[in-house]
Amino acid sequence: MLTRKQKLDFHENGFIKISGVVPKLMVDAARKLINHSIGHVGMHAEDLDKFRAQSYCNEIQNAPQIVDIFSKTPIQNIAESLMGKGKVQEPKAAQIALRFPIQLNSDPNVPRGHLDGLGNGRNGNPKGTYRRGFTALAVTYLADVPETFSGNFTVWPKSHSFFADYFEKEGHQVLANGMPRPELPEGPSQITGKAGDVVLTHHQIVHAAAPNASADIRYAVIFRLRHVDCSENGNDGYIDIWREWPGVQAAVERENTQK
């Protein structure tokens, strides 16, 4: 369970990091399975853009070593404390999100963020389309990420509420033209952490993976969590951004009554 302060931080910033959620035994089992896939199934250079946009190691996305990271750890209870008890659909698969070291002749660039669900032709959706297909991201590091520019999961704090206002004025239909690029309230925050740490984000947080200038692969699995009413609410959730977050709403209401 999360504290009221953590829920209020989530409301303000659009994300929280919780340390040590997934035990080492499960982290190691998932990473071993991924490494086996890389070494024995392999990957082709022509598929790498698709893998980065969708998932590496497709054949193990629904393996027990992967999906149990959600259902057999505190991640499920943490998500329910934000989205409501019994209101989080159990994911059947996860994105295997790897970021490999890159060759650099100069300092790496600051990553450019995006919102999920915008079709680009590489992510399984055609250009000119968009959809809000989930309520939250749950990102689990499977290896330590101690420094920036190590493939870090990266967020733009407060961008969730910024875009709620933006879409109310401009209409979420602007997403059919691709990712809007207004000036955001804060710059990118590259999240460092240890294996087993989890980052939970609002679906509308701008995010990316930082370039990986380290010597090691950045290992993570990402669950896209859906509130039971996600499909019914559809694209209304771009503006009414707390409709699927009763735990957050309750924390904010309690805070306001005590002021």
What do these coordinates show?
The strands form two sheets. Strands 1, 2, 3, 4, 7 and 9 form a six-stranded antiparallel beta sheet that branches. Strands 6-5-8 form a three-stranded antiparallel beta sheet, with no helix packed on it. It is 30% helix and 16% strand. Helix 1 (4-13) packs across helix 8 (246-257) and helix 2 runs antiparallel to helix 4 (64-71). With 259 residues, the chain is an alpha+beta fold. It is built from eight helices and nine strands.
Write the topology of this structure:
Elements: H1 4-13, E1 15-18, H2 24-40, H3 48-53, H4 64-71, H5 75-83, E2 88-89, E3 95-99, E4 136-141, E5 153-156, H6 159-170, E6 189-190, E7 198-202, E8 206-209, E9 218-227, H7 230-233, H8 246-257
Helix pairs in contact: 1-8, 2-4
| Poorly predicted regions | none
Round the Cα radius of gyration to an integer and report it: 18 Å
Overall mean pLDDT stands at 92
By DSSP (H or I, 4+ residues per run), the number of helices equals 8
- What fraction of residues sit in β-strands? 15-25%
- Tell me the total number of β-strands: 9
The largest sheet, given as strand count, sense and whether it forms a barrel, is: 6 strands, antiparallel
Structural class of the helix and strand makeup? alpha+beta
Rough shape? globular
Helix content: 25-40%
H and E order: HEHHHHEEEEHEEEEHH
Give the oligomer, counting copies of the same chain as homo and different chains as hetero: single chain
N-to-C span: 24 Å
